[in-house]
């Protein structure tokens, strides 16, 4: 059984590597053609970034496979043996949380390389070792406290609510996801970044006017000190209901004109006006339900093959390890669903100012973020939540 499980994950890893290889070859060939959308220098730099990132992704896939082999061939069983308390729920919670923390620690070499080598090389990262260490400790603390509380609840449900336990666990998980979306902009994001009300009164007035026209009620417009970590540009609407707020990266405020910023926000408002958020929540509901349905019917022989005892904690650790195989089925569906919303949001953003402002904003985002404007069709089909930059600008130009 263990050999069969490892074979399936090896095939999944090979699938990921093939996708990376397709993208690397496609971008390398496309980079030899005349520049499109971006200036020649930006086009060439974006191609180098895309290839370097994809090579790193391929290495990460191999690294993940090595870790899976480690956990499957005795690592998880050894870790479980360290926690033998009188309470099975306590033992199980300690085991799962320790597994999550250990996995996060094992991922640190990749994070360090990405932050201090890869992203520094291309001028993205402003991270200092001190800030990286603080971010890591905060993340580990969140995993230990809130992850531990969630795992304990799931294990209690597993032990006491019978064969349909996974339905109750699904309901809990979905409720937690909604709660996180509610509290993220006001309680979670400020743990890592400083949020301040937008100081540019004229821009804030224009944004509030745009929000009012769209019928979007927010708790405020804020600037976030993203530049202390990264130079890339972004903005988002966070929260649900009364916690909704507009968050602009300080890098975006520094690089885009007011009209371009309004176009970017108009794009995000387009998602709101078209009900895309509710559609995404509905899709998430059904995919999460499917995942928990599988989780609730995993044979004990599967995790016994890893040397784990028959318990809810063993089931959770097994599922965390091997769920990427299942997620690969849903990934193209989620990507296609997301891409289907983007052109409509772009058109709404263009209407907020003009299509020229929307196109100009997209070009600057592509230039500053070094986003290559093309991608291999199959790679894009599987991974991309947005159409390529070239597709988006072409669609706007044809309005």
What would your notes on this structure say?
The protein contains 15 helices and 4 strands. The model has no long low-confidence stretch (mean pLDDT 93). The protein has 399 residues and is mostly helical. It starts with a helix and ends with a helix. A hairpin with a 6-residue loop joins strand 3 (235-238) and strand 4. Helix 6 packs across helix 10 (276-295), helix 12 (312-352) crosses helix 13 and helix 12 (312-352) packs across helix 14. It has a 4-stranded mixed beta sheet, sandwiched between helices.
Beta content:
under 5%
Mean pLDDT: 93
How would the global form be characterised?
globular
Which series of helices and strands comes N to C? HHHHHHEHEEEHHHHHHHH
For the biggest sheet, the summary is: 4 strands, mixed
Helical segment count: 15
Q: Write down how many β-strands occur, each being a DSSP E stretch of 2 or more residues.
A: 4
Task: Reconstruct the topology from this structure.
Layout: H1 2-30, H2 40-80, H3 88-106, H4 108-121, H5 129-160, H6 165-192, E1 195-197, H7 201-214, E2 221-224, E3 235-238, E4 245-249, H8 250-255, H9 258-273, H10 276-295, H11 300-304, H12 312-352, H13 355-368, H14 377-383, H15 389-397
Parallel strand pairs: 2-4
Antiparallel strand pairs: 1-2, 3-4
Helix pairs in contact: 1-2, 1-12, 2-3, 2-12, 3-5, 3-12, 5-6, 6-10, 7-9, 9-12, 9-13, 10-12, 12-13, 12-14, 13-15
Notable traits:
mainly alpha, globular, 399 residues, 74% helix, 15 helices, four-stranded mixed beta sheet
In short:
This protein has 15 helices and 4 strands. The protein has 399 residues and is mainly alpha-helical.
């Amino acid at each position: 059984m263990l050999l069969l499980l490892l074979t399936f994950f090896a095939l999944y890893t090979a699938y990921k590597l093939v996708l990376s290889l397709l993208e690397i070859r496609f971008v390398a060939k496309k980079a030899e053609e005349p520049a499109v959308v971006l200036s020649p220098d930006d086009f060439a730099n974006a191609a180098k970034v895309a290839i370097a990132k994809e090579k790193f992704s391929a290495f990460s896939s191999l690294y993940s496979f090595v870790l899976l082999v480690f956990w499957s061939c005795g690592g998880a069983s050894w870790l479980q043996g360290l926690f033998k308390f009188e309470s099975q729920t306590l033992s199980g919670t300690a085991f799962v949380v320790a597994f999550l923390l250990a996995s996060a620690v094992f991922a640190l070499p990749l994070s360090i390389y990405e932050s201090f080598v890869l992203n520094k090389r291309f001028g993205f990262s402003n991270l200092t070792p001190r800030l990286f260490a603080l971010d890591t400790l905060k993340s580990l603390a969140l995993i230990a406290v809130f992850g531990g509380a969630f795992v304990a609840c799931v294990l209690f449900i597993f032990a006491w609510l019978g064969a349909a336990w996974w339905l109750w666990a699904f309901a809990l998980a979905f409720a937690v996801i909604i709660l996180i979306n509610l509290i993220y902009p006001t309680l979670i994001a400020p743990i890592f970044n400083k949020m301040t009300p937008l100081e540019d009164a004229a821009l804030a007035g224009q944004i509030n006017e745009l929000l009012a026209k769209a019928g979007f009620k927010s708790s405020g417009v804020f600037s976030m000190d993203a530049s202390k970590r990264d130079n890339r540009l972004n903005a988002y609407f966070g929260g649900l209901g009364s916690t909704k707020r507009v968050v602009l990266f300080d890098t975006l405020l520094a690089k885009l004109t007011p009209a371009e910023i309004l176009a970017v926000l108009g794009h995000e408002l387009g998602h709101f006006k078209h009900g895309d958020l509710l559609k995404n929540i509905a899709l998430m509901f059904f995919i999460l339900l499917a995942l928990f349905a599988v989780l609730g019917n995993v044979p004990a022989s599967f995790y016994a093959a890893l040397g784990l005892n028959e318990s809810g904690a063993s089931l959770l650790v097994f599922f965390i390890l091997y769920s990427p195989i299942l997620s690969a089925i849903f990934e193209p569906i989620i990507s296609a669903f997301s891409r289907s919303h983007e052109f409509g949001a772009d058109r709404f953003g263009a209407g907020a100012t003009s299509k020229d402002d929307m196109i100009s904003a997209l070009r600057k985002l592509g230039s500053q973020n070094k986003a290559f404007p093309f991608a291999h069709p199959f790679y894009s089909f599987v991974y991309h939540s947005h159409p390529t930059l070239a597709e988006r600008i072409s669609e706007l130009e044809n309005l």
